[in-house]
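Pipeline run #58 for the internal structure catalog. This entry was flagged by the ingest filter as a single-chain record with no existing model, so it goes straight to prediction. Upstream metadata was stripped on purpose; only the residue string is passed forward. Reviewer on rotation: M.T. Logging verbosity set to normal.
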Amino acid sequence: MAFSMHSHSGQFCPGHAKDSLETIVQTAISSGMISFALTEHMPRLSDSDLYPEEISAGDSISALLPRHSAFLAEASRLRTKYASQIPLLIGFEGEWIRPSYAPLIHELAQDPRVDYFIGSVHHVHEVPIDYDAAFYAKAREISGGSEEKLFEDYFDEQYEMLRALKPRVVGHFDLIRLLSEEPDRDLRQWKGVWEKVKRNLAMVVQQGGLLEINSSALRKGLKEPYPGRWICEEFLGQGGKLTLSDDSHGVAHVGTNFGRAVEFLEGLGVRELWLLEPGKKEEKTAGLRSVPLKEVKQGVEKIRVD
């Protein structure tokens, strides 16, 4: 009973991911997944927010909203076409670059085809912190040259995102560690950072959000998924609920490292994960159900992609 709450395609994230949305859905089906979420990146508001590969490809902000509309149309077609084989959730990954993005995210979430959105932070001081070392260094410099202060700023921006958006799923909670000097650092070593971590986790619990165990960290060389062990333990201790994501960027990533993610969860003593389900037409929000970890493990063993 494997599933993923977070994915991307090359069709609607060109230059960032690979493969068509339908091919990715077909891969999820052939992998035996019981549910799969389609969550392309949301459109952005300013040309200054474009990534280098988008600029090189000649993209402009004017192309992004029509692309998002095309994504929702195609996702809806696929949901109907493959309804007898797999439940597909339709959503998007929010981009909290600055507070002015909140109204757009809320507006996009009101589309009746959208089941939920992922609340993510990829920027600090409006600078990408997971793109490359140069951008990460720029963000750190704006934070005064201190990596500890950069982490504090990241979690402060995440807190503002949580307060403003109340996302059903929180994406890669500690993404900030990817390009840091010690990606597997125990954040409890930084008192100020850890206090902000605990504050943010409490907000997620209060809002009833799900924290994703995101296996993409493993394919990027980290020792543990997002979020790391100490954050997961704190979150679970506060009564938080976990879900599972591969954050795939193409068919090659579907279910990748789920085996290691399950081992990680077993080591935490986790016995269940939580899954959003497409809501009924008369309902305005996706449903929520528990899936025993042992059943997830059985499904992951059938994927055999690790």
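catalog note: The chain has a mean pLDDT of 94.
catalog note: Residues 3-303 form a domain with the TIM Barrel fold (CATH 3.20.20.140).
status: ready for reviewer M.T.
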